[in-house]
Design brief:
This protein is α/β, with parallel strands linked by helices. It has 19 helices and 16 strands. The longest helix has 29 residues, at 110-138.
Length: 465
C-alpha cells in the first residue's frame, strides 16, 4: 500500500477532529502531523513537504480555500483531500478548481477515508514515477560500441563495478564516452529500474549547483519561493552521475564527502537529515591527482570517489573501432535527417582512419553528422568530410593546394602517402608497428603501399629517416 509510511498533514481547527484523524491515519500506517489553521499549515510546509494533506475549509485566520490559493501562487503541489461539512459540494468543487485532488464529506467512515487517501497517494506516486522515468529516458545514451581490446577491457571493468554499490570514478579525455559508460554501469546494476540523474558540475554556479544537488527549503535564500527536492533526493534508490567532478567548488566538495561517508544530507536552509540511498558515479577529464597535490581538490573526497577507477581510452588508441562507430553514426543521423545515406566509401574511411581525433568519439560523431547532412549520394565520400589536416611530421612534405594542380583526389592521395610515410618514419620502417599506429591491418597497409607506390625502406631513407 502507498499509505504505509506516508506523512499526511491534517489541517483542521477542531482539535477532536484532528485527534480522530490521527488515530485513523496511524491505523493505515501513515505518519500524521497537524495544523490548526492555514497559517500553521504554511509553517509546517516550510519545514517539510508531506505526501498528502487533509484540509478543512472553514477555519479562522486562514481558511482552506485561501491556503490552496497561497500554495498555488507559490507553485507548491501537495496532493490535497478537502474535508467538507454539511455536504457543501459547491465549496468542494471550488476547492478542486484551486488544486485539491478529491474531497470527503463529513461525516465519513474509515473505509471511505482509506479509499480516497489511497487513490490520492497512488496518483502522486504515478506522477512522480513518470517524471523520474522521463528524466531517466532523456539521459539514455547509445550502447557502448567497439571491438578493440582497450574498449573491451574497459567494459569488463565497468561490468564488474556495476555489480556492487561502490563509487566509480571515470577518467579520460573529453569525448571518450564517460557519460555512456556511467549510463551503462547504471543499467548493468541492481538499480537499473530506478532513476539515473546527470548533473554537470561545471555548468552551474556554486549556489545553483548546491541547490540542484541538495535541494532547498522555502525561504532559504532570495527567490526560494517553495521547497525543492534536490537530485540526491529525487534519485533515491538510483544513481547520480556527477560529470566534471574535478571542477566542483571546494565548499560543495565537503558536503559531497558527507553524503559519501554518512549517506545523509540536508537541504539548503534545512536541518532535517535526509537519507541518501544513491550510487555515485563521477567523471572528470582533468588530472585530478595533480589537483589533489595542488590543494584544489580534497584528498579525502578523492579517495572516497576513487573506489573503482576506470580510464577510458582515447579514440586514437582504438582506431580499429572507427569503422564500427562511423557506420553507427551514419545510421543514426541518416534516420534523424530522413536521408538515404547508407555507408562510407573506402576513400572516406581511409581519411577517418588517418585523422588524429583530438575530440575523440564526440568529434567523430559531429564529423559524421555534418557529412550526412552534406552528402548528396548513398555513401559519404571524402568530399563530404571536413577534417582538419594534421601537421606533417619532420621529413614529410606538407600538403599544398598548389600541388597536383589543386585536384582533390590527387590531394587525398598525397595525404595518404604522407601519413603512411610518417608512420613508417616513426616506427623505423617496421610495417607491423606502422599498421598498428594507423589502426590498420598489416595486409591493408601493404596494399596501400603498393597502390600509392610508396617504396619502403628506400622512401624512408630518401625522406631523411
Amino acid at each position: 500500500m502507498h499509505t504505509v509510511g506516508a506523512t499526511v498533514l491534517i489541517v483542521d481547527d477542531d482539535a477532536s477532529a484532528r485527534r480522530l484523524l490521527q488515530v485513523r491515519l496511524r491505523a493505515l500506517g501513515c505518519e500524521p502531523i497537524t495544523a490548526a489553521d492555514g497559517k500553521e499549515a504554511l509553517e509546517a510546509l516550510r519545514r517539510d513537504l508531506p505526501a498528502a494533506m487533509l484540509l478543512d475549509l472553514e477555519m479562522p485566520r486562514m481558511g482552506g480555500l485561501e491556503l490552496l490559493r497561497e500554495l498555488r501562487r507559490g507553485g507548491i503541489d501537495i496532493p490535497t483531500i478537502v474535508i467538507t461539512a454539511h455536504g457543501s459540494i459547491e465549496t468542494a468543487v471550488e476547492a478542486m478548481k484551486e488544486g485539491a485532488y478529491d474531497f470527503l464529506p463529513k461525516p465519513f467512515d474509515p473505509h471511505h477515508l482509506e479509499i480516497v487517501l489511497q487513490k490520492t497517494l497512488e496518483r502522486r506516486h504515478l506522477l512522480e514515477a513518470n517524471r523520474l522515468l522521463r528524466d531517466t529516458l532523456a539521459a539514455r545514451t547509445p550502447d557502448i560500441l567497439g571491438e578493440s581490446f582497450a574498449i573491451h577491457h574497459a567494459m569488463d571493468t565497468a561490468q564488474k563495478a556495476a555489480l556492487s554499490n561502490a563509487t566509480v570514478l571515470l577518467l579520460g579525455e573529453s569525448g571518450t564516452g564517460k557519460e555512456v559508460f556511467a549510463n551503462a554501469i547504471h543499467r548493468w546494476s541492481e538499480r537499473k529500474d530506478k532513476s539515473f540523474i546527470i548533473v554537470n558540475c561545471v555548468a552551474l554556479s556554486e549556489h545553483l549547483l548546491e541547490s540542484e544537488l541538495f535541494g532547498h527549503e522555502k525561504g532559504a535564500f532570495t527567490g526560494a519561493h517553495q521547497t525543492k527536492k534536490g537530485k540526491f533526493e529525487l534519485a533515491h534508490g538510483g544513481s547520480v552521475f556527477l560529470d566534471e567532478i574535478g571542477d566542483m567548488p571546494a565548499p560543495l566538495q565537503a558536503k559531497l564527502l558527507r553524503v559519501l561517508q554518512d549517506h545523509r544530507f540536508e537541504r539548503v536552509g534545512g536541518t532535517q537529515p535526509i537519507q541518501a540511498d544513491i550510487r555515485i558515479i563521477a567523471a572528470t577529464n582533468r588530472d585530478i591527482g595533480a589537483a589533489v597535490k595542488d590543494g584544489r581538490f580534497r584528498e579525502d573526497l578523492y579517495y572516497r570517489l576513487n573506489v573503482v577507477s576506470l580510464t577510458l581510452p582515447p579514440l586514437r588508441e582504438r582506431r580499429e573501432d572507427i569503422p564500427l562507430l562511423a557506420r553507427h553514426f551514419v545510421a543514426v543521423y541518416a534516420a534523424e535527417t530522413k536521408k538515404t545515406v547508407r555507408g562510407i566509401t573506402a576513400e572516406a574511411m581511409d581519411l577517418l582512419m588517418g585523422h588524429p581525433w583530438p575530440g575523440n568519439v564526440r568529434e567523430l560523431a559531429n564529423a559524421i553528422e555534418r557529412a550526412v547532412v552534406l552528402c548528396g549520394g548513398p555513401e559519404i565520400g571524402p568530399e563530404d568530410l571536413a577534417l582538419a589536416v594534421p601537421a606533417a611530421p619532420s621529413g614529410v612534405a606538407p600538403l599544398s593546394l598548389s600541388a597536383a594542380g589543386g585536384d582533390f583526389y590527387a590531394q587525398v592521395e598525397t595525404f595518404k602517402q604522407n601519413i603512411i610515410r610518417a608512420a613508417l618514419i616513426e616506427t623505423g620502417g617496421n610495417q607491423t608497428r606502422a599498421a598498428e599506429l594507423l589502426g590498420l591491418q598489416r595486409t591493408h597497409l601493404v596494399k596501400l603501399l603498393r597502390a600509392l607506390k610508396i617504396r619502403e625502406p628506400k622512401d624512408r631513407i630518401e625522406s631523411g629517416a
